[in-house]
Specification:
Keywords: Cytoplasm, Nucleus, Repeat, RNA-binding. One of its GO terms (biological process) is negative regulation of DNA-templated transcription. About 45% of the residues lie in helices and about 5% in strands. Strand 1 and strand 2 form a beta hairpin. Helix 6 runs antiparallel to helix 7. By secondary structure, the chain is mainly alpha-helical. The strands form two sheets. A two-stranded antiparallel ribbon has the order 1-2. The protein has a two-stranded antiparallel sheet with strand order 3-4.
């Protein structure tokens, strides 16, 4: 009877034509054969889509989630913020002129030709100071150092050799803050005259005479010639006749 029952069971499976799904053991798990077949088909389809997408990647094609290839054109993204900052008329009737005649917008002083009134000081202002109305502002000119002194005065003396006006040189030197470099004015003038003509040396003598007492003092002139005698070995390199001159 057991043999008959077993034969009946197997024969029943064969007669039903596989009504119950056959299961295959993979990694210790029993998986229906139909699901394995479907997984193989899906994997093959994905490999085919991946191959087609890599081939058509430069042509603007895209692949949907269902695996269908879609032809898409290049669309330029539009930003809503860009439309808000657009100064053109939305109705299309604007003439393209600046708003408020050029007086509107950030960092604009106002319309051309506009004159502002003098702002009156508010006495009730908590930051008001009584002494601010009596302030006197003066322009402070920094004293020249040795490097800036030579760079500034060399063109002035060279121009003097052209026009010969000692008053002009005196006015230009008064606008400068010579400080302790006053004695260097005759030193620089004589050094430039040694490299020039005889007329330049005579003009330099007249310039030192006119500047003495106005721009430089007598003590400054004495100090300048002491400096020239000490620098004489260096002056001979540029002007060999410097001691005689």
């Amino acid at each position: 009877e057991v043999e008959n029952l077993s034969d009946a069971l197997f024969s029943g499976d064969e007669e039903n034509g596989g009504s119950e799904e056959r299961k295959t053991e993979i990694n210790g798990n029993w998986i229906p054969a139909t699901s394995i077949t479907e997984a193989k088909i899906n994997a093959k389809a994905k490999r085919r889509l991946r191959k087609n997408s890599s081939r058509d990647s430069g042509r603007g094609d895209s692949v949907s989630e269902n695996g269908e290839t879609q032809k898409t054109g290049v669309v330029v993204p539009t930003s809503p913020k860009g439309k808000l900052l657009d100064r053109r008329s939305r109705s299309g009737k604007g003439r393209g002129l600046p708003k408020k005649g050029g007086a509107g917008g950030k960092g604009v002083w106002g319309t051309p030709g506009q004159v502002y009134d003098v702002e009156e000081v508010d006495i009730k202002d908590p930051n008001y100071d009584d002494d601010q109305e009596n302030c006197v502002y003066e322009t402070v000119v920094l004293p020249l150092d040795e490097r800036a002194f030579e760079k500034t005065l060399t063109p002035i003396i060279q121009e003097y050799f052209e026009h010969g006006d000692t008053n002009e040189v005196s006015e230009m030197l008064k606008d400068l803050n010579l400080g302790e470099m006053k004695y260097s004015v005759p030193v620089l003038a004589v050094s430039l005259a040694l490299e020039g003509k005889a007329s330049h040396r005579e003009m330099t003598s007249k310039l030192i005479s006119d500047l003495c007492g106005t721009v430089v003092s007598k003590t400054d002139v004495e100090k300048s010639f002491d400096r020239l005698l000490k620098d004489l070995p260096e002056l001979v390199l540029d002007s060999p006749r410097a001691p005689q001159v």
